[in-house]
Design a protein that fits this description.
- With about 200 residues, the protein is an alpha+beta fold.
- It has one domain: Electron Transport, Fmn-binding Protein, Chain A (Pnp Oxidase, Chain A).
- It contains five helices and 14 strands.
- The strands form four sheets. It has a seven-stranded antiparallel beta sheet, with helices on one face. It has a three-stranded antiparallel beta sheet with strand order 1-13-14, with no helix packed on it. Strands 7-8 form a two-stranded antiparallel ribbon.
- The radius of gyration is 18 Å and the shape is globular.
- The model has no long low-confidence stretch (mean pLDDT about 95).
- This is Flavin reductase like domain-containing protein.
- It comes from Lottiidibacillus patelloidae.
- Keywords: Flavoprotein, FMN.
Length: about 200
């Protein structure tokens, strides 16, 4: 079966993509606005780009009216943000914080998270997470027909530091089995990375 996309609506393409590219890692992003309000929002169009420099990508769609989402606006204005890994200990609160709160209301406070200072960025991180990446804006790319449309803000961020709980870190590596991150599937479905396996890289004899 072949599914062409040229005649599909935006909503139809979205559904096909989110049920095809999975599981997707979830970035729980904290930013601050000009009044110091800390915003928290989850995004699953997120991944690592390269290690030198240490760049991650974060794709953030526009609001229904075509305006910037709070996270995009704050990153573009303040040039800093923090990405947290989602796991089973915090996924419920993170999901609760995805409600459409007004810009002057902190989702972090509403769901009961607490904050801690970062080392290299002014944006605070969340205590109730096991892994957090301090990021600075590296590049912003608008993806769409024009910036007045409901396109996407592709944020490239440089990771300048990592906060990780001690039980996860050993010999330069972070334990996936102990972290047990949560990934996003299609619709309202999620998955926990609870089982891993290894396959050695092949060698040419």
């Amino acid at each position: 079966m072949y599914i062409p996309l040229h005649d599909k609506s935006k909503a139809e393409v979205y559904q096909l993509l989110i049920h095809s590219v999975l599981p997707r890692p979830i970035a729980y992003v904290t930013t601050t606005n000009e009044n110091g309000v800390v915003n928290g929002a989850p995004f699953s169009f997120f991944n690592v780009v390269c290690s030198e420099p240490a760049i991650i990508s974060l794709a953030i769609g526009k609001k229904r009216d075509g305006s910037l989402k709070d996270t995009s606006r704050n990153i573009l204005e303040r040039k800093e943000f923090v990405i947290h890994t989602v796991d089973m200990t915090n996924v419920e609160k993170i999901n609760d914080s995805a409600a459409p709160f007004p810009s002057d209301i902190s989702e972090i406070e509403k769901v009961g998270f607490t904050l801690a200072d970062c080392k290299n960025v002014a944006v605070p991180r969340i205590n109730e997470t096991k892994l957090a990446l301090e990021c600075r804006l590296y590049e912003h790319i608008f993806v769409g027909k024009n910036e007045e449309s409901d396109g996407t803000d592709l944020i490239l961020g440089e990771v300048v530091g990592i906060h990780v709980t001690e039980e996860l870190y050993n010999d330069g590596k972070i334990s996936t089995e102990r972290l047990k991150p949560v990934g996003r599937l299609g619709g309202i479905d999620y998955t926990e990375v609870a089982t891993t396996f290894s396959i050695p890289r092949p060698k040419i004899k």
